[in-house]
Design a protein that fits this description.
Helices cover 73% and strands 9% of the residues. With 338 residues, the chain is mainly alpha-helical. The protein has 2 domains: 219 residues, Alpha-lytic protease prodomain-like (Up-down Bundle); 110 residues, Cation efflux protein, cytoplasmic domain (Alpha-Beta Plaits). A 3-stranded mixed beta sheet has the order 1-2-3. A hairpin with a 2-residue loop joins strand 1 and strand 2. The N terminus is likely disordered.
Length: 338
Amino acid sequence: MSSSRSQSIQGTLPVIAALLGNGFIAVLKFVGFFISGSGAMLSEAIHSFADTANQALLMVGIRRSKKKATNEFSYGYGKERFLWALISACGIFFVGAGATIYQGINALIRPQHADVTYIVFTILAISFVIESGTLIVAYRELRKTGGKAKFKKILKNGDPATIAVLYEDGIAVLGVVVAFVSILLTELTGAYYWDAIGSIVIGLMLGVMAIILINKNRALLLGKAIPEEVKDRIIEILEEDPAIESVTDFRSAIMDVGKYRIKCEVEFNGNALAKEMFARGALREEFEEVRNDYQEFIKFCVDYIDRVPRLVGNHIDKIEKRIQEEYPEVVHIDIELN
């Protein structure tokens, strides 16, 4: 599979797995709520419903980010992935966290009897298994695409859709544990406030996760720079070339998952390029033709001036090719000469 193809489908498997898993779990949890009347179970049902809707939004973003570049959007639609991930994160905050915390506070103010049966715990157990499975799928996807990098670094620079699934399913697994403990405590003690506290704790976890995802996707939409170590290595490649004295300005942006754009200004050393040409014996034949005729020499110089921009351009193309050989994800390069 080609690199570009693999980048285009990155995040699809975890999102589809989470979408199907959470959709099924949401139905089960709503059934559990109607059977038991538990506020924590309702919070978990709302949580799973919100996750299902959010993963549908992530899928929209992934599909739309694959659209080819047009005259109107010459750099493509890669940032659609970040936009829909941001909308998804806002949905988690307002629908998931907001509704869940409201339900918990309402249960504290107006306690309701919860009729807990073995069916409720069975539903929570099934949810735990499915959520753990989709969590593992997301984790493996991040590990596969992140290579040997530290996991903290992968979370910083990885696909936002896959990271969203990882966070959502991680919180979902914890949420099931919280719901199980709060329902069990309510059943054992007869104190209904445990059920309400469980709902509030689940809502707070969702809120914190949503804020993290909102901040991450906001940065990507604003044009977050490429990883620092990649930037440093690209500058090193540029300055290793004899024709480039220094890089005076370097700017970059992440355009999509695995797609970078860089722009830099360099101090160009024309003498180094000329020495390289002459070392290969360039202009030797032309010199022999005009060495005894000054007018022919002037004419040759005027004609040769037209070749200089092309020579410089070809050299810049070689440098860009060298960068892309090491970092294929750098799909747009703009090198300006000072």
